[in-house]
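pls design
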């Protein structure tokens, strides 16, 4: 329950909705209670009038009494109708305040979580899968909303109603009040119990539903593999088994659900019987009137639904607390990627690595070890190495996805001293795994680059050697990508990703194996364009192909996170070491193909 304290700041922010909601709840309940008293008065009037009417049997006064009765009774009816309308109006206002407040809180909480997700480091995203992140921002927030919305509304209503109704009932007859209330505790305990079973079974259904939809989603995203491996019937059987389990769980819930209302009706019926039985004796003893019994039955029925809702409300609050606990877990995560001095000084592009060592926190794998390198501003450096040698790790460290041991400096200033988003803006990063948004080609190039003219966008695309391809699409730059759009080839995606990085005119460009899917001719065109664009800027070109490295001012060969060779193309060729061997091997492969 302590977890829910996080929401207090929102309840405070929207306190006026809460205060007004409570006031409206009190008023609406008063409009519910007053008709009960009118019913009592009118019933008593009926009895008294009948007594008097028959007492004046045969007298001329009798017709006067009848006329008087006929004019008073519709007046009572009209009052009851008016009260019902007023109660409805105020119930509407209750929802307009408390439920509206819950929607505001839901909105704020979602934004708070989303903002937190964005500032969390890569480590966090490696530890938690996307489904979990999605669930906490959608389903868990939804459950929390049930607490600040309906549960709070029913809770306030219950308290107000119990205070008002019980004090009215006590003022009429404490004895009858005791008997009326006797079955209610049993009712709420029974409902609480049944409700927990319902909740448990609903959760099992929910879990099965999410398994079912995850399976279905995977089937459709991997449909190409499934078809080519002729596995349709295997997946259909798997789906059927999952759906069958879903049906079984749903039927188990139906059983408890069907028990729920009969149980409530029996206990409420018992209360009604007690009112009539005990009330009847009180009438015989002359302590109560028939109107009082009618009044009590109305009170009892007014209390039935709110008392029934106790079980529901309690379990909603429990579920909200569990969900808020999960949300707080993420909100309390600390990001270690923060700036020490928030520097925003102009960057020229010099890069220095001093004894850099990085161990992946979750796996303990050493990504880079004793890595020392100086890259002057305007220089280009190629990082070569076999798979798993630590090349991408280096790229991740430059863009400060992780902080390593040792030190990385930009223009002789520690990377940690720069404002994080400022320094990232100075770097054009093309990751190994290209990610494009389901949007137009133009918007994908413009992504995060601020105001750009169409000429600038076109120039970046030309430099990435993608212009002719885009012209070939019927809608050119407006072509949509993604699920409902066209699918680009691997090489086209890489080139679009390069265009997106260079259009920002970065001071430092990091290409992480970004030319692996293009042929050597295109690779050459792009590299030549890059050497023109990045003339006075720094480029880090990561690759496992010697052809990408040839033009670089400096070449570094990595193996198991350590530098094994470095120098220029000529010096390394003369040395006849790893680079030379790699060059010869790749040359032969190229000749063969
Ligand atoms: N997020 C991660 N968590 C744990 N270990 C990782 C992570 N990313 C990489 N590694 C490990 O770190 C080592 C270096 O990986 P890295 O991605 O830097 O290699 P690479 O040289 O870029 O390889 P490739 O050319 O195949 O992309 C590998 O052993 C890899 O398994």
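designed seq:
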């Amino acid at each position: 329950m302590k977890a829910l304290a996080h929401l207090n700041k929102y309840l405070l922010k929207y306190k006026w909705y809460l205060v007004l909601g409570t006031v409206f709840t009190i008023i609406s309940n008063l409009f519910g209670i007053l008709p009960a008293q009118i019913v009592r008065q009118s019933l008593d009037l009926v009895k008294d009038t009948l007594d008097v009417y028959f007492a004046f049997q045969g007298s001329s006064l009798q017709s006067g009494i009848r006329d008087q009765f006929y004019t008073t009774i519709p007046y009572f009816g009209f009052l009851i109708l008016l009260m019902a309308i007023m109660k409805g109006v105020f119930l509407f206002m209750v929802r307009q305040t408390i439920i509206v407040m819950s929607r505001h809180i839901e909105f704020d909480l979602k934004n708070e979580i989303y903002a937190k997700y964005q500032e969390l480091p890569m480590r966090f995203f490696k530890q938690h899968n996307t489904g979990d992140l999605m669930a906490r921002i959608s389903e868990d927030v939804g459950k929390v909303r049930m607490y600040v919305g309906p549960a709070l509304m029913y809770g306030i209503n219950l308290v107000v109603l119990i205070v008002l109704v019980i004090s009215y009932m006590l003022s009429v007859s404490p004895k009858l009040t005791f008997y009326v209330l006797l079955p209610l505790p049993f009712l709420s305990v029974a409902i609480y119990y049944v409700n927990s079973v319902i909740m448990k079974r609903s959760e099992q259904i929910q879990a099965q539903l999410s398994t079912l939809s995850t399976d279905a989603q995977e089937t459709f995203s991997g449909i190409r593999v499934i078809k080519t491996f002729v596995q349709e019937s295997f997946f259909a059987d798997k789906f059927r088994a999952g759906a069958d389990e879903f049906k079984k769980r749903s039927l188990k819930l139906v059983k408890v659900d069907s028990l729920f209302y009969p149980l409530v009706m029996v206990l409420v019926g018992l209360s009604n019987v007690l009112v009539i039985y005990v009330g009847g004796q009180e009438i015989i003893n002359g302590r109560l009137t028939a109107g009082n019994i009618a009044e009590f039955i109305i009170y009892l029925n007014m209390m039935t639904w709110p008392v029934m809702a106790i079980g529901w409300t309690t379990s909603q609050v429990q579920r909200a607390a569990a969900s808020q606990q999960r949300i707080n877990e993420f909100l309390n995560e600390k990001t270690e990627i923060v700036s020490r001095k928030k520097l925003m000084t102009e960057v020229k592009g010099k890069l220095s690595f001093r004894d850099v060592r990085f161990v992946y926190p979750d796996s303990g794998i050493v990504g880079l070890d004793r890595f020392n390198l100086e890259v002057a501003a305007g220089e280009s450096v190629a990082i070569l190495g076999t798979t798993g040698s630590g090349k991408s790790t280096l790229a991740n460290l430059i863009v400060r996805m992780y902080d390593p041991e040792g030190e990385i400096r930009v223009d002789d200033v520690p990377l940690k001293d720069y404002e994080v988003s400022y320094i990232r803006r100075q770097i054009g990063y093309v990751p190994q795994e290209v990610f494009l948004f389901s949007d137009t080609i133009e918007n994908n190039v413009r992504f995060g680059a601020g105001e750009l003219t169409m000429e600038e966008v076109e120039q970046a695309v030309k430099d990435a050697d993608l212009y002719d391809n885009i012209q070939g699409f019927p809608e050119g730059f407006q072509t949509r990508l993604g699920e409902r759009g066209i699918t680009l080839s691997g090489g086209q995606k890489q080139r679009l990703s390069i265009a997106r990085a260079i259009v920002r005119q970065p001071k430092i460009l990091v290409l992480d194996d970004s030319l692996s899917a293009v042929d050597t001719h295109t690779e050459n065109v792009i590299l030549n364009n890059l050497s023109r664009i990045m003339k006075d800027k720094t480029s880090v070109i990561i690759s496992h192909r010697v052809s990408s490295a040839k033009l670089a001012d400096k070449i570094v060969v990595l193996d198991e996170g350590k530098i094994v060779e470095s120098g220029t193309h000529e010096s390394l060729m003369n040395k006849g070491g790893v680079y030379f061997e790699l060059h010869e091997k790749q040359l032969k492969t190229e000749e063969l193909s």
